Amino acid sequence: MLLPALCTDARFLTGAALATALLDSRQRSLAWVQDLSAAQWLPPCQPGVNPIAWELAHIAWFAEFWILRGPHTLDAQGFTRAALPARHAGPDAHLNSACLAHAQRWQITWPARDLVFGMLAGQLEACLAAFKGISSDAACSPQASYFYRLALFHEDMHAEAFCWLRAALGYPAPVGVVLPKVPKRQCLSLPAAAFCLGQDSATTGFVFDNECPPKPVTLRAFEIDSAPVSTGDFLEFVSAGGYQNTGFWPGQAGQWRAQSAQAHPAHWRCTPQGDWQMRWFDQWLALPADAPVLHVNAYEAQAYCLWAGRRLPTAAEWEYAACSHNGFGWGRSVWEWTADDFMGYPGFSPGPYREYSQPWFASHRELRGGSFATHARLHHPRYRNFFEPQRTDVFAGFRTVALG
Predict the structure, then answer these.
(1) Greatest CA span in the chain, whole angstroms?
(2) Sign of the C-alpha dihedral, residues 245, 251, 253, 255?
(3) Where are the domains of the chain?
(4) Strand order of the sheet with strand 276-280?
(5) Span 187-402: which CATH code?
(6) pLDDT digit string (tens) for 117-170?
(7) pTM for the structure as a whole
(8) Which class for 182: exposed (0-12), middle (13-18), buried (19 or more C-beta within 10 A)?
(9) Quick check: helix, strand or coil at residue 399?
């Protein structure tokens, strides 16, 4: 059953609960990579994938950089610099993802995994020791917890990246990760409304910079699916020749896949007997009709909508439905493509981590919700995810809205 994601209190974590969450996040990160072989730790260079040693070292670097090495300033090139040197994870030039190009991450000799694990342990111990000093103060301010929460959510995001790396490369699924199911879609009618996207940065909880300042919007009445599109629904589109007949075909404007002309999702195949299968990590499964369609990109989602006489929801429609309708099931399933390019709200101002949002405006598409691999802490009705619209490696699907 698809459940609404209601874990919103994570943004208010402080004290012992926040320290426990940092430990939990680290245990999850390690659990999703430590069973892999040395060869699997260094996959071939390809989009969406990093050497595992680099990604783990980056996690340690990020937390140490923001928690232990302040104050921070901007250099002449606009990059954030820390006043204090690295003690556990460095150098900055190798581990700051804003400074080191993706392909260059394969050109560096990374330490053995035991040394990487030691780097992570030293960083976490130092950060928790520093946190103990501020969390014991009854007057601990939200600002004092900000960078700990930022490091927590950052690591949760990278843990999910380890999961989609395993799926993209055909590695076994992490222990405990199971394919979700979605209920049959119903049509939900929502009335016209004045609604405020995002939230105020002055809240006592954590806020991502792209969620503020609040953006007032006026929505017309609309009808939206109660759940994401299932594989069974998408199979009807595939079987009807939807890829060929909707204009989203390789070589045309709006090209969505350059390397293949196969008329089905990248993780699907049809056997010689005519049976459809879906690749789930290292296994090929009989296509489960009640699973959410996943590993589809934004163009495939749009093609389905065009074939079905529907459209993708705007981010505002999605957020309003998630905040206002109990029948709107979301989260713990798939990230959901929206119709909107990822852009800042009017009056946007980057947060201390300036590279988080602003560099990706206009080039990325906005997604909402959360996948089965997303930690419950990150499930939030106002959380804005964003990827390039052609990506199929992430755990993304979609839902539809009626035309009109």
Answers:
(1) 68
(2) positive
(3) 9-168, 187-402
(4) 268-270, 276-280, 283-286
(5) 3.90.1580.10
(6) 999 999 999 999 999 877 655 445 567 789 999 999 999 999 999 999 999 999
(7) 0.93
(8) buried
(9) coil
